[in-house]
Amino acid sequence: MRAMRSTPLYKEVRDQIVQSLVRSEWQPGEPLPNEKELAKRYFVAISTVRAAIGDLVDSDVLVRKQGKGTFVNQHNFRGSRYRFFNVVPNRGSKEPFNRKLISIRKEKADAEAIRTFGLQTTRGGGDLYRMRIKLSARGQAFAVADVVVPIHLFKNLDVNGIPNGDESLYTLYQQKYGVNIIRVVEQLYAVKASSSVAKALSLLPDEPVLEVRRIGYTFYDVAVEQRTTWIQTRDYHYLVTQGAPG
Amino acid sequence: MRAMRSTPLYKEVRDQIVQSLVRSEWQPGEPLPNEKELAKRYFVAISTVRAAIGDLVDSDVLVRKQGKGTFVNQHNFRGSRYRFFNVVPNRGSKEPFNRKLISIRKEKADAEAIRTFGLQTTRGGGDLYRMRIKLSARGQAFAVADVVVPIHLFKNLDVNGIPNGDESLYTLYQQKYGVNIIRVVEQLYAVKASSSVAKALSLLPDEPVLEVRRIGYTFYDVAVEQRTTWIQTRDYHYLVTQGAPG
DNA sequence: CAGTGGTCTAGACCACCGA
DNA sequence: CGGTGGTCTAGACCACTGA
User: Fold this and answer.
1) Is A241 on the interface with B (CB under 8 A)?
2) Which residues of chain A lie closer than 8 angstroms to B245, CB-CB?
3) How far apart are CA B117 and CA B113, in angstroms?
4) Within a domain: residue B207?
5) Contact, B228 vs B213, CB < 8 A?
6) Does the nearest atom of strand D lie within 7 Å of A67's Cβ?
7) Which residues in chain A, range 35-64, keep a C-beta under 7 Å from any nucleic strand D atom?
8) Which residues of chain A have pLDDT under 70?
9) Using the beta-carbon criterion (under 8 Å), do B184 and A242 form an inter-chain contact?
10) Is the domain of B165 the same as that of B221?
11) Looking at the complex, does the CB of residue B46 fall below 8 Å from at least one CB of chain A?
């Protein structure tokens, strides 16, 4: 007979698995041990392991592939859809796009950054990296973004650490720095394009653009990225789907 | 020994439950029979019923309340958060707002409406209702919307069928017409306010506003509402959360 | 207190995958 | 073919709810 427990067993197992992910015991794209082994490892029934894994599949941390195994989710690569990327062309299907780094520099954290990242503010040098990114498709820029990340998670980031290309920044975070963004919160505004944004997007000044202010979180709801994106919505729009087909 | 089945048993049970919902055997807010009874009714194990219910809970059709029962989800009432309503004030917490019907009229369906609603176009009279709605908080309008629904689902809709108030339109659809919207798809654009929108929202003409084009679906992905909302994002924004805390 | 959903077990057989 | 996750059973005890 087992003593009464404060938290359900399967949640403890789930947290153990998350611990292993945080420790990078299993890398993105790699399979976990099979369910029977995990059951032995944690001294629980296989159904309990399945409940734990089910939770992590629901929150997109793991993916199950029948006949193959359970894998650490990898943020999508070129071709397939980008996770958390909701900008699509108004007509025509989803198309590949190009990401280009315009600039990068170190910065001292301001009050807002200290708050969102929970930084200690006593250090001498810069606390943050700030990047300017441009996204384009078919040779035409459709969005620019300002990306801010704390230095302590992205040591030695520089231009070479952020190659241009067509994969998501989050893929880079994951592969080069072990930073997994598993949750984002975005605030959307319609604003007039600033002169620099208008220029980058080939818009008339004061033309409306969609401003998306995002904060990205990793495990345990720790904020690790703050970005603001400006999108021209003449040829593109932001897509939101809520609810699942019944 | 059971014969091989093409679809999993729990999915068949899930579809049976959906059937009952479509037939309104259980009304929104009402409890379903308990899990043991459902297991008897469908001749399956209780875990299979739980898997079926789990699916419907995941897609927000049902809600489980420990110690009480499993209920047909009811679109939220005043005070609590509205489902599918993602507009929140920039500062301060979520606040109650007022919905006001500005106008309503019958219309012949155009090509777009015929496509989205899959209408037969041979009838003589109007095929659609078109409503203009205004949303305000603290006496100040922050959004206006154009709502289009097919007549055949909303017979005898008129001004009295759409009282002003602070509950969601979807609550009305559900309670008065048995129409459950369980999924919405939205396209977001930043546009210049038209003169009528600017006037309604107390903006200067050509000021940027957020345009949200939504299609609402009921069971089996049948489209039942099309609406366009214009939101002023000086005092409000549109909130998107993706992913769950790990 | 009785009734509900929540958790958990220890099995079984199935469908899928790749060598 | 062996190994994986997917489905399913028939129970058990727990925690929560409301009368």
Assistant:
1) yes
2) 59, 182-183, 217, 220-221
3) 6
4) yes
5) yes
6) yes
7) 35-37, 47, 50, 64
8) 1-6, 76-81, 121-126, 246
9) yes
10) yes
11) no
The set of strand C positions with any atom below 7 Å of a protein CB reads 3-12, 14-18
Identify whether residues A95 and A184 lie together within a single domain.
yes
Inter-chain CB proximity B246 and A190 less than 8 Å:
no
Q: Note the pLDDT of residue B123.
A: 56
A25-67, pLDDT tens digit by residue?
998 888 999 999 999 999 999 999 999 999 899 888 899 999 9
Residue A45 CA to D3 C1' — how many Å?
A: 19
pLDDT tens sequence for chain B (246 residues):
343 456 789 999 998 999 998 888 998 888 999 999 999 999 999 999 999 999 899 888 899 999 999 999 887 554 345 788 999 999 877 777 899 999 999 999 888 899 999 887 655 556 899 999 999 998 899 999 999 999 999 887 877 778 888 778 888 888 888 888 889 999 999 999 999 999 999 999 899 999 999 999 998 899 999 999 999 999 999 999 998 876
> A246 CB near a chain B CB, below 8 Å?
yes
What pLDDT shows up at residue A126?
A: 66
pTM of the model as a whole: 0.89
On chain A, the residues whose CB falls within 8 A of the CB of B208 are 190-192, 208-209
**B221 plus B168 within the same structural domain:** yes
The domain tally of chain A equals 2
**Which pLDDT does position A93 carry in this prediction?**
73
Q: What's the CATH number where B147 sits?
A: 3.40.1410.10
Which residues in chain A are closer than 8 Å to B211, comparing Cβ atoms?
Answer: 190
Give the nearest nucleotide to A1, CA to C1'.
Answer: D13
Range of the domain at A50: 9-72
- SS3 letters across chain B: CCCCCCCCHHHHHHHHHHHHHHCCCCCCCCECCCHHHHHHHHCCCHHHHHHHHHHHHHCCCEEEECCCEEEECCCCCCCCCCCCCCEEECCCCCCCCEEEEEEEEEECCCHHHHHHHCCCCCCCCCCEEEEEEEEEECCEEEEEEEEEEEHHHCCCCCHHHCCCECCCHHHHHHHHHCCCCCEEEEEEEEEECCHHHHHHCCCCCCCEEEEEEEEEEEHHHEEEEEEEEEECCCCEEEEEEECCCC
Residues 55-74 of B with CB under 7 A from strand D: 65-68
pLDDT at B103: 93
Chain A residues close to B59, C-beta within 8 Å: 243-246
Average pLDDT, chain A: 87
Contact present, A62 and A70 (Cβ < 8 Å): yes
Asked if B119 reaches chain A (Cβ–Cβ under 8 Å), the answer is no
- Does B185 contact A219 at a Cβ distance shorter than 8 Å? no
